[in-house]
Fold this sequence. Notes:
This protein is of the alpha+beta class. It is built from three helices and three strands; from the N terminus they run ααβββα. The longest helix is centred in the C-terminal third of the chain and has 10 residues. It is globular, with a radius of gyration of 15 Å.
Amino acid sequence: MNAEQAAASAGPTETVDDERPDLSNANVREDVALAGRCGLVHLPTGRTCLLPLRHQGPCEFHRPQEAEDMVSSGD
């Protein structure tokens, strides 16, 4: 298989937006990330970081309902 065939058969995870290559990562909530937030999920607890994308310092994880509220309000 050559490079052209590989590119033609690329799956949907290989067409990720250049701005957010982390969207293909299973521990990033896509809906939160597309809202301009970090979106990293702490897998043991299911909590999500709602800080802005590329924030300074450690993530601040919030309950799943808080992430849902943030996404639905468009905040």
